[in-house]
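Today's session is about reading a structure prediction critically. Students often jump straight to the picture, but the first step is always the sequence itself: look for stretches that repeat, for charged clusters, for runs of hydrophobic residues. Only then move on to the predicted structure, which in these notes is written as discrete structure tokens rather than atom positions. Here is the chain we will use throughout the hour.
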Amino acid sequence: MKKILLGLAAAGLGTMLALGGAYAAEEAGHNAAEPTHFPIEKPAELDWTFAGPFGHYDKQQLQRGLKIYKEVCSACHSMSLVAFRSLEELGYTEAQVKAFAAEYEVPDAPNADGEIVNRKAIPADHFPSPYPNAQAAAAANGGAVPPDFSLIAKARAVERGFPLFVADIFTQYQEGGPDYIHALLTGFGQTPPEGMQIPEGTHYNPYFIAAKSLAMAQPLQDGQVTYDDGSPQTLDQYSKDISAFLMWAAEPHLEDRKKTGFRVMIFLIVFAGLVYIAKRRIWADVEH
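Below is the predicted structure for this chain, in token form.
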């Protein structure tokens, strides 16, 4: 057993040294003017109400995020996997959801002449795309198709590397997507390092996960969206609110999942205790 433990310890130490060496080599090859890995800067880890084993969504924040999506983001980005009726989970009544859905138009079934006509959306419909197809979206955005926002908060996250990903197992860190979105939205307007060439028609952002610049210009500014609840109308607050809303869109059942997980853990602890007591009781009079 001692040899096995020593072997495992040696293997673990070797892995740590190898990872450290690879990271050092990667950093050594990094050039400020022409970076070799992205994002150039790592997003800050923010405090979210939905973080941790007992996290929950702030419905007021989600409603503000929905307002930002509707007034700003929906001009380019779709949410094809999110149904209007899901908005009741944000605290809206059925009548409010119906009225909200009716502000959108979706394609209807072909009429008698075989033509596709639009109709007002109903709660059962999903958020429509602002473009009829991907080709139209690309043509309107310089060749880049704006991504769908349904799962963006789960699909976009920065790799935290060793040893942070090990610590994440115990801290249950799952907010990489919102942290990245917030960093990206607040990362515009910075001056590129000296010597860095930014392609024409793109915008430098050190937090972009795929390159040093992206086609999207800065979408949010201070005072751009009016809040009715007195929340700060700042870029930072806007970015937090839309990030939280997109996290909800990607994982609307997060609260139920965490509650179920907690109940399961309590059950397993109690069950393990009962098994131990039963074992002691059954084998108490048996000679060993």
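Discussion point for the tutorial: Residues 31-82+126-278 form a domain with the Cytochrome Bc1 Complex; Chain D, domain 2 fold (CATH 1.10.760.10).
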